[in-house]
Amino acid sequence: MAMMAAPVLVTGATGFIGKALCTALKERGQPYTALSRRPERAKTLVPGVKEAWRWRPRLEHPPLSAVQGAGAVVHLAGESVAGRWNKEKKRAIRESRVIGTRHLVAAIGEAKSKPGVLVCGSAVGYYGNRGDEELTEEAGPGSDFLAEVCQAWEAEARRAEEHGVRVVMLRTGVVLGRGGGALKQMLLPFKLGLGGPVGNGKQWMPWVHVDDVVGIILHAVQHATVRGPVNATAPTPVRNREFTQTLARLLRRPALLPAPAFGLKILLGEFADVLLASQRVLPKRIQGAGYTFRHPALDAALAAIVR
């Protein structure tokens, strides 16, 4: 990424992807700032941040001084979807994304000096459960709760185009990396020999290494031809059973204990449907824009994390 004089403004900077992104920006000598519900914590957890402002996404616009003069905005803030869904959890998932993005875009509209690009988080949940269908960015949306949230989320982000800002919606898959993401929850049971496929294991799993999520974000910021929805997933999706077998082999443990669908639904409610959904997502748009994946194959990607 070529350095820009203006800082990159990051929301969700203390999250798994946010911290990895800020580390990459620091390594490149690119100044960056942050919006956070707890700015003092952000300054501690994200070394090198130039400035951090307090922002409660569901309640208010971010400070205009945070947006004013930013060269790019990367919006990653949002309530975690993991865990049992109840009415309040679903409301937090939706409002933190939809209302939060609405507030952010409103501030961008008010700024006299606007960012050149808004890279806004989204998710492969946009597509819903699609079996063996190959899903590029041209595929239509699903109809479940998470698909509806992603559609509304992306619609709010697109409003920034009315202010002359290029918009990229990052449809992220299952993010893998050290110290966080989906793998953090999986490692302990697998290390204990208690891992196994989810459900029947036949569902497609759109995984991606966190290094590539960061790489895609930086590529999207730097290249003006990248706009609209972008699948942030590795070019080689695998079925869940292949994923669990690969992880178990690298850890030298068995993977014989499946997590049955009915048990997941009892434990996690509606969120279980997310884990059981099949999404054969392909990153057509970012590859067409010249991005080269650092971790295109699952075996090597997992080996780089667990060894």
Could you walk me through the main structural features you see in this protein, from its secondary elements to its overall organization?
- The protein has 307 residues and is of the alpha/beta class.
- It has a domain of 212 residues: NAD(P)-binding Rossmann-like Domain (Rossmann fold).
- It is built from twelve helices and 13 strands.
- A seven-stranded parallel beta sheet has the order 3-2-1-4-5-7-11, with helices on both faces.
- The longest helix has 24 residues.
- It is globular, with a radius of gyration of 19 Å.
- The model has no long low-confidence stretch (mean pLDDT 94).
Notable traits:
single chain; 307 residues; alpha/beta; Rossmann fold; 7-stranded parallel β-sheet; two-stranded parallel ribbon; 12 helices
